[in-house]
Amino acid sequence: PEGAAPQLLDSDDVANVLGEFARSDYVRQLCDYCNVQPTDYGTIRCLFKSVRTDGAKLVVKLNPTVEQRSEKLLDRLKKHLRATMPAIKQIHYEQGSPPTTRTIIV
What we know:
Distance between the termini: 22 Å
Shape: globular
Helix content: 25-40%
Number of strands: 4
Order of helices and strands: HHEEHEE
Strand order of the largest sheet: 1-2-3-4
Number of helices: 3
Largest sheet: 4 strands, mixed
C-alpha cells in the first residue's frame, strides 16, 4: 500500500535509482576528475565496488578511483536517495582494510 514502508528494498528499484545517480552530471564531472575509465561512465560500477541492501540500509564500498572524493559523493548520494527512494534510511559506507563502516542517515 502507498505510504507503507516496505520491509525489503527491491533490488531492481535500487539498481535503477543508483543508475540514475551514476548518469548524473555530477558523477560525470567526478569521473573526469578521478580519471575513471570512459567505458565505465554512467554505470554503477564507475562508483561502487559493491552495493547491497540490508533492511532499510544501503551498504556500499566505493571504487578506489573515486574514494578520494567520498565525502561529497556520499553527500550527493544521500540527497539523491532522500528524493527518489525514501525507503532507504541509512547508507553504510565500508572502506579500508581492516574495514571500517561509517553510517550516514538519509
